[in-house]
From TrEMBL:
<keyword id="KW-0802">TPR repeat</keyword>
<dbReference type="InterPro" id="IPR004358">
    <property type="entry name" value="Sig_transdc_His_kin-like_C"/>
</dbReference>
<dbReference type="Pfam" id="PF00512">
    <property type="entry name" value="HisKA"/>
</dbReference>
<keyword id="KW-0472">Membrane</keyword>
<dbReference type="InterPro" id="IPR050736">
    <property type="entry name" value="Sensor_HK_Regulatory"/>
</dbReference>
<dbReference type="InterPro" id="IPR036097">
    <property type="entry name" value="HisK_dim/P_sf"/>
</dbReference>
<keyword id="KW-0808">Transferase</keyword>
<keyword id="KW-0597">Phosphoprotein</keyword>
<feature type="repeat" description="TPR">
    <location>
        <begin position="201"/>
        <end position="234"/>
    </location>
</feature>
<dbReference type="InterPro" id="IPR003594">
    <property type="entry name" value="HATPase_dom"/>
</dbReference>
<dbReference type="InterPro" id="IPR041617">
    <property type="entry name" value="TPR_MalT"/>
</dbReference>
<feature type="signal peptide">
    <location>
        <begin position="1"/>
        <end position="19"/>
    </location>
</feature>
<keyword id="KW-0067">ATP-binding</keyword>
<keyword id="KW-0902">Two-component regulatory system</keyword>
<dbReference type="InterPro" id="IPR003661">
    <property type="entry name" value="HisK_dim/P_dom"/>
</dbReference>
<dbReference type="GO" id="GO:0005524">
    <property type="term" value="F:ATP binding"/>
</dbReference>
<dbReference type="InterPro" id="IPR005467">
    <property type="entry name" value="His_kinase_dom"/>
</dbReference>
Length: 675
């Protein structure tokens, strides 16, 4: 079992947060009022960093005030420091990577103009961290390798060591383990040379994690023991606990249960004093995992109860998932099948939730990467414009020389000017044509890449959940049928049937969406009777409404001629009507109305169901914010139905919108061109 090892890797990639106290921020706020104007900049920077942990809004406000103060002065160094601070705040607090990159690039340009290599390197380190957090480790490595020689040449050993550590982390992400190890060792050497115990301990700890990833457990244990010895001399409880739990995990993997228990209990004693609930929960999970390895399931259960308590207290979903998996293993081994099924279901549900969050994060990272690349493209265009302006000035100077000579050689110069004019015109026309072709190709490629990324991200997390459930339930049926009651088997069979239906509906919607995105959807625009399409769908979904005792009201003319694709229009009406039935409670009412305009018809499907808040309304039609909610009778959707509706309505030349109020129902309405 590798549950805890995965948790250990978090420290490698987490964003750095400087521990600040409210008292420090309060004292700085008082000091800001008392100090003279020329000292306020430094206080504002310190306040911005002090508020960064407890009050992001205040941190940004003070950071912007520092930037405004620096911008109003001639102090270029202060301007660079303020830009770097704002870039770090936008990255760490808001994940606004494109804004952060723009600020950091401004700082680099100002540092170059000033000729300050140290400030330029510090700005490059911030840019490297922006690229890493936005999912572009290759660019991140480029900028770290730009900053590193600058720190080395300026004889700044501590900045060199910390940059080496960050470089090693990026190499780990790229799975370039020899380079990562080389960077960590070089950082350790610098730490030993200057007696920086913190740098030595961090470097050795990261080496231990790296060796464990390569399954070199003996060397990993040796490194973690070295790091623990150093950290016990200087570090705070979280760092010491981190090392103790890593050592315990390594002993457990080598079946040295006595040593594993010793170190995990020692870690628990340390971390309890700090009251950091996430680490306490992780420690209890590690202790329980050790008991499970010894098949002492009864001893593991109360420990897991404590882990679940602390994990839920801080809503740490990954820790809770580890706890549910261990509880499932324990109850299954103790033949507590009902409890095993319960915790397996909880594990599956929270895994699906984590997968959804991870997918949303990846989508945000992809969007950030696109924004950053767009920003780089704009910068490149500005550089090209500057080069063109320089070339234009050069040409104008040469033309002046030619005009002076033209006084003496009018005929020769006139011919030469004419030749240059024709050549330049042809070149410009050719260049304009090439630029137009390149722009069109880039736009098409960008759209294709965006569509591909969205399509694969949906498949990656939406299919995984139902298949994982099917695998879990089939495993129980295969291996434990003889120990289960008929009711338990029927319960599992119903779950399997529900998962298969959900998976079929998902694949059907995915196929329709993929066809619309790739151009394979064949739209046949023709004139047809919209009233008949609505009546057909009412007949199709009438039994579903009747099962929930829902009243269907509709007012339609005998004939309503429109011009669009009949199949996709029917799909839109069926999806919207099915959704209305799903989210309307028993005994509710659904009304279908038609408004005729000069050149369009509006269809309205209104229910008095559960409704939705404004923030949900903003997500339901967006592919990067896919949202799925269970119906009033527990019906489960794919989250793609409304996205398909939007795609089909817009391809038919219409518009779709929703008006809803939580607890009062929803009104979906869309337009379609009139015949």
């Amino acid at each position: 079992m590798r549950i805890f090892f995965i948790g250990l890797l978090f420290c490698i990639f987490s964003k750095p947060v400087v521990a600040q106290t409210p008292d420090l921020a309060d004292s700085l706020e008082v000091k800001l009022v008392l100090v003279p104007e020329n000292e306020k900049f430094d206080i504002l920077l310190q306040l911005s960093q002090a508020h960064s942990r407890t009050s992001p809004d205040k941190a940004l406000q003070r950071g912007q005030e520092a930037f405004a103060l620096a911008s109003g002065s001639d102090n270029k160094e202060a301007q660079i420091l303020a830009l770097n601070n704002l870039a770090a705040l936008n990255k760490n607090l808001l994940s606004e990577y494109d804004i952060a990159l723009d600020l950091a690039l401004q700082a680099v340009r100002k540092a170059e103009e000033l000729g300050n290599a140290r400030l330029k390197a510090e700005s490059e380190v911030i840019i490297a961290s922006i690229y890493f957090d936005s999912g572009n480790p290759f660019k991140s490595l480029d900028y770290y390798l730009l900053a590193l020689p600058a720190f080395q040449s300026l004889d700044l050993p501590l900045k060199t060591a910390t940059t080496l550590i960050e470089t090693g982390k990026v190499q780990v992400e790229l799975e370039n383990y020899p380079k990562a190890l080389e960077a960590f060792k070089e950082a350790e050497d610098i730490g030993r040379k200057y007696s920086e115990t913190d740098i030595i301990g961090t470097s050795i700890y990261l080496m231990g994690v790296l060796y464990q990833r390569q399954n070199n457990l003996e060397t990993a244990l040796e490194k973690h023991l070295q790091a623990l010895k150093l950290r016990e001399e200087f570090a705070q409880a979280p760092a010491i606990t981190e090392s103790l739990l890593a050592i315990s995990e390594l002993y457990r993997l080598q079946n040295a249960h006595k040593e594993a228990l010793f170190y995990v209990k020692k870690g628990l004693n340390y971390i309890r004093k700090s009251r950091q609930k996430s680490l306490i929960a992780a420690s209890y999970n590690q202790l329980a995992a050790t008991y499970v390895s010894q098949e002492e399931y009864s001893r593991a259960l109360p420990v897991l109860d404590s882990a679940l308590y602390f994990g839920q207290a801080v809503n740490n979903k990954k820790t809770m998932r580890q706890t549910y998996e261990l509880l499932y293993d324990c109850h299954l081994s103790l033949n507590h099948y009902n409890q095993a099924i319960r915790y397996k279901t909880l594990y599956t549900d929270i895994s699906e939730f984590i997968n959804n969050e991870e997918n949303a994060r990846k989508m945000a990272e992809m969007q950030a990467r696109f924004d950053i690349e767009k920003k780089e493209g704009e910068i490149e265009v500005l550089k090209r414009d500057q080069e063109i302006k320089t070339l234009t000035i050069e040409k104008q100077r040469y033309l002046t020389y030619f005009l002076i000579l033209g006084i003496l050689l009018v005929i020769a110069i006139a011919g030469l000017v004419y030749y240059l004019y024709i050549t330049k015109k042809k070149s410009n026309l050719k260049l304009a044509e090439i630029n137009t072709q390149i722009q069109l190709s880039n736009e098409q490629l960008s759209e294709l890449n965006s569509t591909k990324d969205r399509f694969f991200s949906i498949i990656a997390h939406d299919i995984k959940g139902p298949l994982h459930s099917l695998r879990s339930f089939s495993d129980l049926l295969i291996n434990h049928t003889d120990k289960m009651s008929k009711e338990e088997i029927q319960f599992l069979a119903k779950d399997i049937d529900t998962s298969l239906k959900n998976l079929f509906g998902l694949l059907e919607n995915l196929l329709e969406w993929a066809r619309s995105q790739t151009g394979a959807l064949d739209l046949r625009v023709e004139q047809f009777d919209l009233s008949q399409i609505v009546k057909n769908n009412l007949s199709l979904l009438g039994p579903s409404a009747a099962a929930k005792e829902i009243t269907l009201k509709y007012g339609l003319p005998e004939s309503l001629q429109v011009r669009a694709d009949a199949n996709t229009t029917s799909t839109v009406i069926r999806n919207l009507l099915s959704n209305a039935i799903k989210f309307t409670p028993k005994g509710g009412e659904i009304a279908i109305r038609v408004n005729e305009w000069k050149d369009a018809v509006e269809i309205s499907i209104k229910d008095n169901g559960v409704g939705m808040p404004k923030e949900v309304q903003e997500k339901i039609f967006r592919i990067d914010q896919k949202h799925s909610t269970k119906g009033t009778a527990g019906e489960k959707g794919t989250g793609l139905g409304l996205i398909l509706c939007k795609e089909f309505v817009e391809k038919n030349g219409g518009h779709i919108a929703v008006h809803s109020e939580e607890g009062k129902g929803s009104d979906f309405h869309f337009t379609i061109p009139k015949a």
